[in-house]
Amino acid sequence: MGEKSYRDRVAIVTGASSGIGWETARAFARRGAIVVGVARREERLVRLGEELRRHSPASSHLCGDLGSQAFAERVVRETVAHYGRLDVLVNNAGMPKHKHVFHLSGAEAEQVTRVNFLSAVWTTLAAIPPMLAQGGGSIVNVSSFAAVVTPPREAIYAGTKAAMNAFTEGLWSDLRGTGIHTAIVNPGPIDTEIWQKQEEPTAYHGPLYPPGIVVDAVFEAIEKRRFEITVPRRSAPLVAARVLRLLAPGLLRFGMHRMDPVPKTLIDTAQARARGDGS
């Protein structure tokens, strides 16, 4: 069975300069969609635009920081103004923050929240009116399995993704009957540049899966009206973690501690700093 055509459909893909976003934007263009790629790295977007226009000559890009409400809303507004419609919004923009909570600052937490969660809220709220006016559309929020089971040193990252998931679940009820379909995709460990941006050592040394499995999930969510998809589907560690989270959370916490224990020296240093007798 062939791929569904998206000819003359307009799709915004955020976080399009690499990884999942890059592959998602290319996949929409190959299917005939007009794609607006959005990210912060202009040189990467220019290269992406060249690829997109081989299949979809009207495709374009917008460069800016989605952690800014003004820019996030402008992406949707300018897309609708230029193309006259918006059929698909894929909120994929995100930034990692693999950092123990003792080392996390309030400013860092705010930045991650703006990029990973609020950017999706801003673009979604801007996209709903034009989608309502045209009778429907699809909004797919690319989250993370960390929102379901939170690994060590991922408190703020997972927190932002969990907020995205809860926001999306709320939309399932609020948008029922409007023709606007919203979905969550929860990727597990995907082979993207995020693994080169870890600020502290990661305890995960398992397999990394290709971004294509996330792209396939995005299209399945749109075309089969799925509400939530976790990939990879048959990963034994992901399945086990989810089961333990539901049935034996204490055992899950024990396993997390074994995987990435908190060194006593880290606690001692944090306590000394809290008492004011450490640097």
Written overview of the protein:
This protein is α/β, with parallel strands linked by helices and 279 residues long. The protein has one domain (10-235): 3-Layer(aba) Sandwich (Rossmann fold). The chain is 49% helix and 13% strand. The protein has helices at residues 19-30, 42-55, 69-83, 106-134, 155-174, 212-223, 236-247, 249-259, 264-275, and strands at 10-14, 34-39, 60-63, 88-91, 137-142, 180-187, 228-231. Strands 3-2-1-4-5-6-7 form a 7-stranded parallel beta sheet, with helices on both faces. Helix 1 (19-30) runs parallel beside helix 2 and helix 7 packs across helix 8. It is globular and about 60 Å long. The model has no long low-confidence stretch (mean pLDDT 94).
Comma- or semicolon-separated keywords:
single chain, seven-stranded parallel beta sheet, alpha/beta, 279 residues, 7 strands, Rossmann fold
Number-wise, the strands total 7
Strand content: 5-15%
CATH class, named: Alpha Beta
Task: Using the CA coordinates, give the radius of gyration.
Answer: 20 Å
As residue ranges, the low-confidence spans are: none
* Quaternary class: single chain
Tally of helical runs: 9
Averaged pLDDT: 94
Strand order, main sheet: write it out: 3-2-1-4-5-6-7
Assign a percent range to the helix content. Answer: 40-55%
- Helix- and strand-based class? alpha/beta
CATH topology: Rossmann fold
Question: How does the major sheet shape up?
Answer: 7 strands, parallel
Q: Can you tell me the CATH superfamily?
A: NAD(P)-binding Rossmann-like Domain
